TrEMBL record:
Organism ancestry: Bacteria, Pseudomonadati, Bacteroidota, Flavobacteriia, Flavobacteriales
Species name: Chryseobacterium phosphatilyticum
Entry-linked InterPro entries: Peptidase_M1_dom, Peptidase_M4/M1_CTD_sf
Residue intervals of the Peptidase M1 membrane alanine aminopeptidase domain: 371-570
Region (Disordered): 773-795
Keyword Ligase part of the UniProt annotation: no
Tree of life domain: Bacteria
Chain segments annotated as transmembrane: none
Full protein name: M1 family peptidase
Record keywords: Signal
């Protein structure tokens, strides 16, 4: 679903609910927290989900096939449906009941989920908004009306409706490997989507008196039963979207004869519902490289004037999809073209449906944007597997398998603003992209909105960039998330929060995860490692149900990068990035340093190193008659120090010895010339925001040249609050810029710059000596001092 970008700075009421905890390992310290492994924060790997992030050898998921008949009554604005569902239990569990979703109940005043929001007295309102509060609340006539629920033979089944969920009690236990067939008949009044909101409904066009229907969440849909949650039967509140099972659909839609229908999957009877000219154009479009109008603008305008009372039935089939949506209206212009996916040679029919009000934009761009999207997403994830991809202009922004509802209309004179054009292209890319997340990589939207919206928004950004390098993407680049990250903590929550409990839904579920993935790709991992890992995740979890840990683990498993610090900070925390240049110390070498003379050092030989205190283990080991110490058995091991430790060797420990230190060497003329232009810069950094990130520096020298350096985030591992880096250059710096390309979402760039204004920075001196070229001492080698064996005259 596409949301408008909006950063709210209002005072809000705190929400409580499920949030994955960012457990700190060493909370009282300046280290040992941000870089610790996620450990117990992530679920324990098992036979269903492995520690690598891949599905395990015991992975399973259930399935549901649907055969649905629908009747659209345009006069009454009512939908009547009948479905036969075949549910397959592939789980190892025995099921006593099954759960279905009745999403249309959210539009009901008495059957909705009951998730009330706080309300305030507004200083201004309108006559349409001002209504007398009804207590008790009256039935507004919307929501699902169940006519009958039976098994395959027609025997009624016991069922219970709880708001937006329905439980069917099975006549006998459904065991592993068994299937259950049942039937549901229902109807509901279709709401005015523009006035009531929501994803499905109708839009009325007063100028010509026609409706445009977007039929979404329109049939009783199976809930997911999974290894990680059991039944996902959390109520549908209108925000947290969907968790659905895969299956095959056969759907027939009986609509007014002059309506054009688009839907999930392929239409199986175009020869019965299209006239000969339209069918001929469709056949041409099947091999066209440019969009061809199947239903022309003139035909759509003519159809608007004649409301047929005849009926036609359109039949669609879709295999291995998790949902089915459709659209119907006599207002539609319809165009299409063929696009081939290079990765799997899949020939896809890209199509668009739109009213005349959006003709000037959709005819130019929509179908081409559809084609561009599925090709680009296929490059970054998996090859698009379905035969169809469709965009419908419906003043909306919502996604379903192979079909999505978007926005973008021209002025009456056919002109449009650049914002409208870019918004239309962006929403088409976003909603078509949802075919991959979550329609194929089928995450639980009800629990984790970010797993589809965030990952999809990230891939949308990659696709927008490949559409037009000047495209004004509002989500993805690191700098675009800064205003959100600046907000007070009581207006923030971790990305790892339940969909219903997020105050700033758009930034949290869409922008922040998309930005985080882009930072991983561009700044932390690099494109090659990231792209391979991201594709691996998509391939592993295509047509399956991934959880957050599956993504986190796969990204590490396929890249060889330890990213726990990033998941911990960006996904489980709310700290922002604010790294500051605290101080820059400038120094030059003292080339005239007097060499240090050799010195005589007095010392005494070492005393026995055996511990002077008998600890509890030593005492108990001596008292244990079952222990015989190795050195007591092996006479060869009883050397000088065995006896020395036991007082059996006599050494004068008070006798003084002396050793001479080496003199340091002076710099020669060649050295002085080599180092005469060296300037040292110690840069002290402070982590003021709390979230660790790489330190990226741009050095500008007095001669105008530039150098760049990047230290990985691991520089903070031993001190998460303050670090320093020292550089030695053979020319003087004019300035230092931290994060010059705004890659890290730093919320305060005013402390990211240091300038040697006028070349007047205070400069200190450091001592410089010449090092003797003898290779130095080796570990465990001679120190040059007399040892106890030598002092005792033993060899």
């Amino acid at each position: 679903m596409k949301l408008k970008v909006c950063i709210l700075s209002l005072s809000v009421f705190a929400y409580t609910g499920f949030t994955a905890q960012n457990i700190q390992n060493n909370p009282g310290s300046n280290h040992g927290n941000k870089f610790e492994q996620l450990g117990s924060i992530l679920p324990t790997p098992n036979i269903y989900r492995t520690a690598s992030g891949a599905p395990g050898h015991g992975y399973w998921q259930n399935r549901a096939d649907y055969n649905i008949s629908a009747y659209l009554d345009e006069d009454k604005r009512n939908l009547k449906g009948s479905e036969t569902v075949t549910y397959y239990n592939n789980s190892p569990d025995e099921l006593d009941y099954i759960w279905l979703q009745l999403d249309e109940n959210e539009h009901s005043s008495i059957k909705n989920a009951g998730y009330d929001n706080s309300s305030i007295l507004r200083p201004t309102t309108t006559d349409q908004q001002l209504k007398v509060t009804e207590l008790p609340v009256k039935d507004n006539g919307y929501g699902v009306n169940l006519e009958k629920v039976t098994d395959a033979s027609g025997t009624p089944l016991k069922y219970t409706v709880n708001k937006t969920m329905m439980r069917i009690d099975l006549p006998k236990v459904l065991k592993k490997g068994e299937k259950f067939v049942f039937k549901v008949d229902w109807n509901y009044n279709i709401g005015n989507r523009i006035k009531m909101g929501g994803r499905g409904g109708y839009e009325n066009f007063p100028e010509d008196g026609n409706d445009l229907y977007t039929m979404a969440q329109w049939y009783p849909r199976m809930c997911v039963y999974s290894d990680f949650q059991g039944w996902q039967n959390h109520q549908f509140t209108g925000r947290g979207e969907f968790a659905l099972v895969f299956g095959d659909f056969k759907v027939s839609m009986n609509v007014p004869a002059d309506h054009i229908v688009g839907g999930t999957g392929e239409c199986k009877n175009y020869d019965q519902v299209l006239n000969s000219d339209q069918l001929s154009r469709y056949r041409k479009a099947e091999s066209a490289s440019e969009p061809i109008e199947i239903v022309t603008l003139d035909e759509a305008k003519k159809a608007e004037k004649n409301h047929s009372k005849q009926r036609k039935t359109w039949v669609f089939e879709a295999n291995n999809v998790r949902d089915f949506a459709w659209t119907s209206s006599r207002k539609f212009v319809w165009d299409g073209m063929r696009v081939t996916i290079p990765e799997n040679n899949n020939k896809v029919m890209a199509m668009s449906f739109y009213p005349k009000e959006s003709y000037g934009l959709y005819r130019k761009f929509s179908t081409k944007a559809v084609a561009h999207t599925i090709k680009t997403y296929s490059e970054f994830t998996i090859p698009y597997p379905y035969p169809v991809a469709q965009s419908v202009e419906a003043a909306s922004g919502m996604e379903y398998p192979m079909i999505c509802f978007n926005f973008g209309r021209t002025e009456k004179d056919g002109t449009y603003s650049e914002g409208t054009k870019n918004g239309m292209i962006g929403v088409i890319i976003h909603e078509v992209g949802h075919n991959f997340f979550p329609m194929i990589i089928n995450s639980d939207e009800r629990q984790w909105a970010w797993m589809d919206e965030g990952l999809n928004t990230f891939t949308e950004y990659l696709t927008e960039e490949k559409w037009d390098n000047k495209f004004p993407s509002k989500r993805g680049p690191a700098w675009t998330i800064v205003d959100y990250m600046k907000l007070p903590k009581d207006q923030l929550e971790p990305i790892m929060s339940n969909s219903e409990n997020i105050v700033q839904y758009g930034p949290n579920a869409y922008s922040k995860p998309a930005t985080g993935l882009n930072i991983l790709r561009e700044t932390i991992m690099g494109r090659e490692l990231f792209d391979k890992a991201f594709k691996t995740y998509a391939k592993r979890w295509a047509f399956k149900h991934p959880e957050p840990a599956d993504l986190f683990r796969t990204m590490e498993d396929a890249s060889g990068e330890d990213l726990d610090w990033f998941w911990r900070g960006w996904f489980y925390g709310t700290d922002p990035v604010d790294i500051a240049i605290d101080k820059v110390t400038v120094a030059t070498p003292n080339l005239e340093t007097n060499p240090k003379a050799a010195a005589e050092v007095k010392y005494q030989v070492e005393k026995p190193l055996a511990s002077s205190f008998d600890d509890i283990s030593k005492i108990r080991n001596r008292e244990d008659k079952n222990i015989t110490f190795y050195v007591d058995k092996d006479k060869e091991a009883q050397d000088f120090y065995y006896r020395y430790d036991r007082g059996q060797e006599k050494v004068d420990n008070n006798k003084e010895y002396s050793i001479k230190t080496e003199a340091s060497l002076p710099l020669d003329a060649k050295d002085k010339d080599k180092f005469k232009n060296i300037t040292a810069y110690q840069i002290d950094f402070a982590n003021k925001g709390g979230l660790v990130m790489p330190i990226i520096l741009e050095f500008t020298f007095e001669d105008g040249t530039k150098l760049y350096d990047k230290s990985s985030a691991q520089i903070w591992r031993l001190n998460e609050q303050k670090v320093s880096k020292t550089y030695y250059f053979d020319k003087k710096l004019a300035s230092i810029q931290l994060d010059p390309m705004k890659e890290t979402a730093d919320i305060d760039t005013s402390n990211n710059f240091w300038s040697n204004t006028g070349g007047n920075a205070e400069v200190s001196k450091f001592q410089l000596f010449k090092q003797k070229q003898d290779g130095g001492s080796v570990r465990g080698g001679s120190t040059g001092k007399v040892n106890p064996m030598q002092a005792a005259g033993k060899s």
